[in-house]
Give the backbone structure.
Amino acid sequence: MNPVRSGTIFPGQPMRVRFSHPRFPRWATLAALLPWMLTAAPVDFSREIQPILSENCYHCHGPSETGRKAELRLDTREGAFRTRKGKVSLVAGKSAESEVYRRLVSKDPDEVMPPPESHRSLTPKQIALLGRWIDEGAKWGRHWAFVPPEHPAVPVPKRGGSRNPIDAFVEARLEESGLHLSPEADRARLLRRVSLDLTGLPPTPAEAEAFERDTGPDAYGRAVDRLLASPRFGERMATDWLDVARFADTHGFQTDRYRPVWPYRDWVIGAFNRNLPFDQFVLWQLAGDLLPGATKEQRLATTFNRLHLQNEEGGIVEEEYRVVYVTDRVNTFATTFLGLTFECARCHDHKYDPISQKDFYRMFSFLQNIDESGQSVYFGDIMPVPTMLLSTDEQDRELASLRERIRGMEAGQASVAEGARGAFAAWLARRPTEAAIPGLVGAYAFDELKDGKTPNGAAADKPGSVFEGPRPVAGHRGQALEFSGENGARLPGIGHFTRADPFTISLWIQPASHAPRQVVIHHSQAWMDAGSRGYELVMEDGHAAVGLHHMWPGNAIKVRTRAAIPTNAWTHVAFTYDGSSRARGVRVYLDGVPAEVEVIRDHLWKDITYGSPDVTVGQRFRDNGFKGGRVDDVAIHARALTPLEVGELAGRGDLTRALRTPEPALAAADREGLAAYFRDVVHEAGRKHLEALAAVRREENQKVTGIQDIMVMQEMDAPKPAHVLKRGMYDAPGEAVTADTPAAIGTLPAGEPRNRLGLARWLIDPRHPLMTRVTVNRIWQGFFGRGLVETADNFGIQGSQPTHPDLLDWLAVAFGTGTRDVPGRPIAAWDYKALCRLIVTSETYRQTSATTPELLAVDPDNRLLGRAPARRLTAEMLRDQALLASGLLKERLGGPSVKPYQPDGLWEVSGGHYDKGRGDDLYRRSLYTYWKRTTPPPAMTVFDAAERSICVARRQSTSTPLQSLALLNDVQITEAARFVAQRMLRDGGADTADRVGYAFRLVTGRRAKPGEIAILRDLFREQREGFAADPESAKRLLAVGETRNAGGLDPADLAAGTVLAQALLNHDESMMRR
């Protein structure tokens, strides 16, 4: 049940009644409500009527065209006021003449709405409210969240004005219910609360004592400023953000392997710490790569869009999972920034919100335009493309220097050629007449096949071999091999070329048919399972396609002949590559003649080698082989041959002819071909220049290969076509769509590009109805445990109504445009820290969490904020608090994820092994814990940490026996308790009462009361006596954990102190934030 409008009745849960019940006549109920109907304020459609219609009517009469009944729509004014079969659904000012109202009060089970079989019903108050709304004129309106927020005037409560506008709004709402704000919490509890909320850690004893000594009028404000300036602030805020960003250290799915995305986490921490304006924080993550002159930091921020799961499983359909990834981006965008459930519109129009399936795929179009694959790489630690190098400034300078040298040497090739003109003329006059083609490393005629071996004419010690029995057949010359698509020939020990190495592959082929894809020859581990990493010659519908890939498609070059190769005829195919990492460095020849090609991809910048696979002919793992095709005379050269040399290999005799033709009779093309041959083969300066160029390219390749890369967004030059996918199925494209925003929320401004940059600018426009509301609501949730809109992930029609709508809008406008409503402390637009400060310095935040009978009676759920909320610490806070109290916490900022204690054997489920960290890695903040999606850290998931497979805007809160068991028995907590005990014994004084009091303050942040001291002293004494009588038990307890205690402590004392500390860490005062 949605609450009715503020100021009318208190939002509660009214009794639900079936109106067709004979003992509960409708007229009696409505008559009883008549006094309320006559005195209440005018009905607000958005906050009072629409929730009733959405809950009870939209399923059959809402936005979705599928399943709509009686051709009636109640989600639009036009539909609700239409006349059908002589009956008007709604008649403004006349509920008795309105068919909708007549059906609501009907006693006929065949006419009453909602129908009995729907198992939905309206309460008497809801029916009365609908009738009154109709009689008041049935004034229509848009859903409140889709209307841009206005800047409401700050109210003046009866008790007087407030320096903090938050308190003015909250106090005014409380006064409506006869309540008021509670007194301020005691100083120790307040400091603990704000320290946990702003940094995720409680105050240290030194910080608590400094706050106690500071009795100045703004002591609390100074404490808040210190916490906001702490680097711990960024870590605390990042924890919540990483939930919505679905950050994890692994890809997910079955294999769930490592992905190094921790630099994104470090960027988020840094952005919060330096208070990057929140509009820029959002803009960079959505479209940092599209900003003019985008920096590495701005590109790194776009990793946000790539943190979805990536599937490495073999045999999947690549396009199916690409659609899954883009769908995740759409859903994450909608949840994070719009607070809407877009996932409902993937397969059909949204049942409740005005989001059509077409709207979904228009948003899909914005977020799909990167060159990615739905199949992640199983063979090799290759990051799914597109990626960015995580290079240091020094590495960037080294790479820039190498690339400048390469460009200079490439440009110098013309000078080398010019300098060789005289030598070429002299050579031309006395040139040899026999053709020589150096660089041959592999020559396989397939004329001889014995014991599965075939000779290598270039290296007798490296013969080829066949597998699965390709059939010897008559070849172009002598014998050839015919392949089935599953068998093949391996050519080991040769062809291990990097992207910096020039080389040539040539062979005769005879296709049996044209097919979408047929692998002819390749040097790689596998097809999609390895991202095609390596080089290949593939037939695509009869066209020869040559590719060199680090990972297909985003880090690769590929060209394809425009002409098709005929079937059932021999064609000589050759391709040369010059080592430049550019598509123009690949030349394809058909029957010795350069072929016209189209460039499919031209973006190769990392190495193409992986492991030591053999050059293979006719087949590739999990790919389509050269079925029925024949291959003869494979030749591999470790240099890029010149055109005349390729023509010679093709049997045209081009090089021989040119060498033997008298100089006066040489054709221009032959003269040019001989010049190239002379420069690359004969002329020493030319050869040395090519060798030197290749050496620098190899150095650059080696340098790049040694630098880790990270997934980012990188827009393609041309938008990918987008379609409505019928039923959400990847293979059922329907109507074509272009990138656009849902009309119900707002249109993309004219002049904005229809890409992610335009989308981001549309989003951060302060007039946007959702962005600022959703953001400030989630910030509020972080401090109060519940947002002003409880459904932080759903601001749609089915979501909760805001408890303080004017406060929500004031915060939204203040955040998006800035405000001077705060006396003496104006807030700038998008100032995240200033908004946090405003919240935590409010009286509303500083209240005690203690309740009163009056508050419990009127506001048992504390929705009106008459007291501070009490809630359990988050999973991260519980662990970090224990480490801080123990003195074990290592507070180094940022860096790779670490692996603290975890029960043995959990990773074996997904075929992995958990290598526990050592030293400081065991004691880093929980934010840095390695997060494996299929097996997240159990010590945190048991305390409701998000799984991180999907975007989570609000964590669930549970209470289970496992939580108590974890806090008692977890290795991390037990070890921390042991070091709390050490601190207690060494620093707490000589008296037991002083010691247990010291431990209490270490853990809870406040001084223990005399009664608490007595209980703890008795506990310590009892435990010490037990351990003194059973030293083996003490020894076993003190052996838990990797770090040993300092010497000189009595084992019985230390063990007893450990048990006492465990009890304290399980105590309500330490587990709860009050």
